[in-house]
UniProtKB/TrEMBL annotation:
CDD domains: NUDIX_AcylCoAdiphos_Nudt19. One of its GO terms (molecular function) is hydrolase activity, acting on acid anhydrides, in phosphorus-containing anhydrides. This is Nudix hydrolase domain-containing protein. Keywords: Hydrolase, Magnesium, Manganese, Metal-binding. Residues 26-230 form the Nudix hydrolase domain. It comes from the Bacteria. InterPro entries: NUDIX_hydrolase-like_dom_sf, NUDIX_hydrolase_dom, NUDT19.
């Protein structure tokens, strides 16, 4: 057994939470998207390295994503594909939250990678988002001077929820000071679009085979949070992007728990104390 040891203040906090002396911070609803493409060696995923100065997951390689903004639940968002109620059934969420999760997934992906899962019609997708006008809109989304609904409206676009597939559900352990209740999606890079280094919370971006990312984490070359590690390990089993998108997934909720292992407080998963490490 192993898990992730909790030294110092986090270890003390873990003991206080288990003893009922400290209440865990509520988890914020969030969405993340694994953007996929076909590479020369098979499926590749888009990863960002979070800046060392970030309060949460500093230095970790992550997928694009972030918290649900209250405006993400706006009914003014033009919509194509499975309705919010259908997404709610998949993720165990009410219709309002499901709408917010899907909108947050598409919005955050555009903010953090330049990829936009939207098009002029329910069966088309934007071909290029690299112009200066697109960059101005992306920055306006980030500083919240522009809502996602307004972005789609002024460009005559509809959100393509059918380009997303559900993958999994993770909740940050109770010991953390910042916690997220995150639904994971997968999506293919739309034809004609390309990711770019858009800065902001990330200081490096990369396309990498899932198995290679897991191997790099195992050798200490990169740092992966447990949900990212587990997701990349799962994706390593697929040869083609279409195979990933066509996978039948049962959405399981994971929340690593606090436990004492050999006298030391740890974050552990019941089914995998080492989080997939070799």
């Amino acid at each position: 057994m192993g898990g992730i040891p909790l030294p110092g203040e986090l270890g003390l906090r873990a003991r206080d939470i288990l003893a009922g002396r400290v209440e865990p911070v509520p988890a914020r609803d969030a969405a993340t998207v694994v953007v996929l493409r076909e590479g020369s060696g098979g499926v590749e995923v888009y990863l960002l390295r979070r800046r060392a100065s970030m309060a949460f997951a500093a230095g970790a390689y992550v997928f694009p994503g972030g918290s649900v903004d209250p405006r993400d639940t706006d009914h003014a968002v033009a919509w194509a594909g499975p309705a919010p109620a259908e997404w709610g059934e998949v993720f165990g969420a009410d219709e309002k939250l499901a709408r917010g999760l899907v909108c947050a997934a598409v919005r955050e992906t555009f903010e953090e990678s330049g990829v936009l899962l939207a098009g002029p019609s329910p069966d088309s997708v934007v071909a290029d988002t690299t112009g200066d006008d697109w960059e101005a809109d992306r920055l306006a989304l980030i500083d919240r001077s522009l809502s996602f609904a307004d972005l789609l409206g002024k460009r005559g676009l509809v959100l393509r929820s059918d380009l997303l597939r559900p993958w999994t559900h993770w909740i940050t352990p109770e010991v953390e000071h910042k916690r997220f209740d995150t639904r994971f999606f997968v999506a293919a890079l739309p034809p004609g679009q390309r990711t770019r280094d858009v800065g902001g919370e990330a200081d490096e971006v990369a396309w990498v085979r899932p198995a290679d990312a897991v191997a790099q984490a195992g050798s200490g070359r990169i740092f992966l949070m447990p949900p990212t590690h587990r997701t990349l390990t799962e994706l390593s089993a697929y040869e083609k992007v279409d195979d990933v998108l066509g996978a039948e997934r049962e959405i399981v909720t994971h929340m690593p728990r606090i436990a004492e292992v050999d006298g030391v407080m740890h974050i552990v998963l019941d089914d995998d104390y080492r989080f997939g490490a070799a």
